[in-house]
Amino acid sequence: MKGTPSFGKRGRLKTHIVCRRCGRHAYHVRKKRCAACGYGASSKIRRYSWQNKKVNKERLI
């Protein structure tokens, strides 16, 4: 068939594969960039201050 039933089989292209640097399934094949660690875009590891929950530093002392 070439009609409506065949259109569902079109969207099976791989977008993300396992990253060589961080090992997570976040490397975008077409963008050539890891969404988790930033491999392919920069040599520095992708990291943001908002990623970890803020902890009251005074209570840890």
Please give the structural blueprint.
Layout: H1 4-7, E1 16-17, E2 27-28, E3 33-34, H2 57-60
Rounded radius of gyration (Å): 19 Å
Number of helices: 2
| Poorly predicted ranges | none
Strand order of the largest sheet: 1-2-3
Overall pLDDT confidence: 90
Which structural class do the helices and strands define? Answer: little secondary structure
- CATH topology name, in short, is N-terminal domain of TfIIb
Shape, please?
elongated
The level of helicity is: 10-25%
The main sheet comes to: 3 strands, antiparallel
CATH architecture: Single Sheet
How do the helices and strands follow one another from N- to C-terminus?
A: HEEEH
Number of strands: 3
Per DSSP, what share of the residues sits in E-state strands of 2 or more residues?
Answer: 5-15%
Distance between the termini: 69 Å
Write down the CATH class: Mainly Beta
Count of separate structural domains: 1
What can you see in these coordinates?
Strand 2 and strand 3 form a beta hairpin. The relative contact order is 0.13. The protein is largely without helices or strands. The protein is elongated, with a radius of gyration of 19 Å. It has two helices and three strands. The protein has a three-stranded antiparallel beta sheet with strand order 1-2-3, with no helix packed on it. The chain has one domain: N-terminal domain of TfIIb, CATH 2.20.25.
